[in-house]
């Protein structure tokens, strides 16, 4: 039987299949109109599949080299059960999770093994269309969006420092600053801190009184110095390595 979704997509003149955006989920959430809008806005192929198996069995053009795979929140259980299947399907592109409820995004964030399967992006479905397109554009460039409530989740999960116990013996020297974090300039540390809070380049620029271009340059330098490739990994570095130092704290 002919697939009406695929038929409607095929009628749109897309100049290249070198890059495609593939949505995994029901048509109720990724409609034909959404796919046509993505193709028209970004000039890339857009497809929808009911599940990951249909995506894997699809006949892609031999010239296809990269793609974004966006998984709807209804696939959360399967995504966590078979993460390797999903990461394999996104090729050299990136994997993202489309959510309408914060609880589902938080569940994925807490259970996703970033060390084994890499970082995953987040795509909120209940935001304004221009915001949604901006986040999708970031995903196309492998800049993974991390919502602020997930950044707060990481921050709140960190164990609080225990009360200091006064000893008569001389106090031990304070722990030295992390050498990687110490390489950052004052401005780069400020940008990293705001990125960890989930702020966009535009908001960071307004907060610091600089241009968005300057923010991008600082973020590029930060990524190079700390050895990460995207904002999600940079935020993770901040909370794991730099958070205590940025607030003048030492680990007991």
TrEMBL record:
<keyword id="KW-0238">DNA-binding</keyword>
<dbReference type="GO" id="GO:0003677">
    <property type="term" value="F:DNA binding"/>
</dbReference>
<dbReference type="InterPro" id="IPR036388">
    <property type="entry name" value="WH-like_DNA-bd_sf"/>
</dbReference>
<keyword id="KW-0805">Transcription regulation</keyword>
<protein>
    <submittedName>
        <fullName>Putative transcriptional regulatory protein NarL</fullName>
    </submittedName>
</protein>
<dbReference type="Pfam" id="PF00196">
    <property type="entry name" value="GerE"/>
</dbReference>
<dbReference type="InterPro" id="IPR000792">
    <property type="entry name" value="Tscrpt_reg_LuxR_C"/>
</dbReference>
<dbReference type="InterPro" id="IPR016032">
    <property type="entry name" value="Sig_transdc_resp-reg_C-effctor"/>
</dbReference>
<dbReference type="GO" id="GO:0006355">
    <property type="term" value="P:regulation of DNA-templated transcription"/>
</dbReference>
<feature type="domain" description="HTH luxR-type">
    <location>
        <begin position="176"/>
        <end position="242"/>
    </location>
</feature>
<keyword id="KW-0804">Transcription</keyword>
